[in-house]
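Exercise 7.
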Amino acid sequence: MYAPPRTRSLPSLLALARCVWRGDGDLLGLLPATAYRTAIGPLGYSRRSTVIVNDPDLVLHVLKDPEQIFPKSDLMVGALEPLVGDSIFVSAGARWRRQREMIDPAFSHIRLNRAFTAMQAAVDAYEAHLDEVAGEGSPISLDLAMSHLTADIITRTVFSTPLQSQVAHDVFSDFAAFERHVAHVKLSRLIFDPAFAPVAQPPEVLAACARIRRHLGEMIDTHLAAGASYDDIASAVIGARGIQDGTDTGFTREELIDQLGVFFLAGHETTASVLTWVFFILSIRPDIAARVRAEVEAVAGAGPIDIDATKRLAYTRQVFRETLRLYPPITFLPRVAMADTRLGGRRIRRGALIMIAPWVIHRHQALWDNPDVFDPERFSPEREAKIRHGSYLPFGLGPRICVGAAFAQTESALILARLLRRFDFEPLAPDKVRPAARLTTRPADQVMVRVTRRG
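Solution. The predicted structure, written as tokens, is:
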């Protein structure tokens, strides 16, 4: 049995001391050993109450939020607002409902079989790039490789623009800077600040956000120009309509930047984080990689891998889903209690942080057998039927479930099939790889690999 890298659990005070010593803002190190055993309970010591919720029924209750008292936490909103404004990712109440009603049909307008062409074009380009890299023999960052590829896919799909264009490349670079700074959570803020305290961002974050929003605005303007005709997500969102103050209206230009900023944020970085872990694990487990390659050979041979073929890659999808379990892209789904209430018999005060952590739930000892072991067979049809509802939530659950889940799974199956068929990936320092909770669940340091052509 293979257990890929994880953060070692410690008692609460030792976990806090470790985080202070490391000083890298990684929240995985703060999770005490008891977090992986409890159904609901306090998490650490802080001025505002923080409650971790692992029981699947309670998780579903919070995420479905029938009483409308558990919006996304003020810490998350404060961190992301400079980039995505009051968009669907952070808004609440009637504003969120209007946005979701407009976004859902806009996203479904770009059906997978239409978006798949953009995916193929991006993978074609990146496969050619990796062919050059393999010929040179120089190591590359697996993290950056996956980010570039998925960013290319999302810019082609959202804006009909390949990543190689200067505007799209600048957006990618500034977003990487935004992640580095925003992900560095100050422990003092978590421990000492009261509920709803303002979240100040450093000047470099605000500058990166301003540049990203300016570039997004420029790409949107190409779609708003007179005579422009596109068939992509941006044009669908531009054409979306909804009722506001009794009037049927579309999104303003600033709202379009908000919403399409979310598509860029959620559409490439989350998938890139999972693919980084998939390729790393398969480089350590050549037997599993061989089984994926055999499936690809059986389904598509050496020929094109179309969208129907990706649906038939059952084991490949199991590998991806098991990686999602061990390394959920969004490590935490924090909520805040907007009123005094009770949850699982526990009193919850207004302002309390309700911490739903897919990382913890996916590794909870009461919900999974051998939870730290990589076992794609968990998602075979026979065993998947036994997984308790609410214990697997890589894309969230409830009304705010990710609208791009099918997109991400199809994209990842294509990338895995195409790149594994052509290349081997050899990690240069596998023993040094460890996960960290930043904006997504990433390796703490970049995973350097050497790429070689197969055969």
